[in-house]
Write a structure and sequence with these properties.
This protein has 265 residues and is of the alpha+beta class. The protein is built from five helices and 15 strands.
Length: 265
């Protein structure tokens, strides 16, 4: 059918021998979903598809979310968000380790990103495995974190300014969530959206949160991807964080789709 080629021991795999213009049946989607749960981020090189086909491919993994920020490439593609950077002053804060939209009560299950137009150099993206990040903590630290909750707030992000705080109130999620399919434990706080651990006082938060934010950046948790036109990355947003390297000035255009998730537990 196609080959799954792991890229690091912890995270990431390339899917080879697949053409996303083809109609994929249930067996193909089941195999890709299993690969996603195993490797957490999948890469599809050189796919000659448009935004409509990207939408249809993503829809095979779940209900597509109409994200409350950004704009679509066409009026009949509300599920697709255009990310355009590099042409003018830096505005995005995607070059901070984070999981997408943890400020939502039901953050996305996954995110699919397609390279539309790229700068000649730069613009790599990194992903980090939050299952490995949790497992690498000492047993006493894991015992401390288990059962704690943290608040997430979209207004902490400059990318999301202009949103309605009443429509997206501050939410609390477990500091360590359990993946709903694999049952594995994942560290679930990030530097962009997490504001405080509810059960700790201010001083304890000042000490512990920066440690956790830095801990997730260890290279042994990571995979780095150099984009080419037509490449697609599809990642499990429940068990990963990512970082978009902002080392370019020429325009970079990506099309992003998010798939509805569940309430973290």
């Amino acid at each position: 059918m196609f080959d799954i080629r792991p890229l690091t021991p912890a995270i990431g795999a390339e899917v080879a021998g697949i053409d996303l213009n083809d109609d994929l049946g249930p067996d193909a989607y089941a195999a890709l979903t299993e690969a996603l749960h195993t490797h957490q981020v999948l890469f599809f090189r050189g796919q000659d598809i448009d935004a409509y086909r990207q939408r249809d491919f993503a829809a095979g993994f779940g209900t597509l979310q109409r994200f409350p920020f950004g704009h679509p490439p066409a009026p009949d593609l509300p599920e697709v968000m255009v990310l355009a950077t590099g042409d003018g002053p830096k505005q995005s804060n995607a070059d901070i380790w984070h999981s997408d939209a943890t400020f939502m009560a039901r953050p996305p299950l996954g995110t699919m990103l397609r390279a539309v137009s790229l700068p000649p150099l730069g613009g790599d993206t990194l992903w980090a495995d939050m299952e490995s990040a949790y497992a690498a903590l000492s047993a006493p630290m894991r015992a401390l974190l288990d059962g704690l909750t943290a608040e997430h707030d979209f207004t902490k992000s400059r990318t999301h300014r202009g949103g309605d705080p009443d429509a997206l109130p501050v939410v609390a999620h477990p500091v360590v969530r359990t993946h709903p399919v694999t049952g594995r434990r994942c560290l679930y706080v990030n530097r962009i959206f997490t504001t405080r651990i509810v059960e700790l006082d201010e001083r304890e938060n000042e000490l512990l949160l920066p440690f956790l934010f830095d801990h997730v950046t260890r290279p042994d948790f990571q995979v780095r991807f150099g984009w080419r036109p037509g490449d697609i990355a599809f990642w499990d947003n429940r068990s990963t964080q990512h970082y978009a390297v902002y080392d370019y000035q020429a325009p970079r255009v990506m099309h992003r789709i998010v798939i509805e998730g569940d309430e973290p537990r």
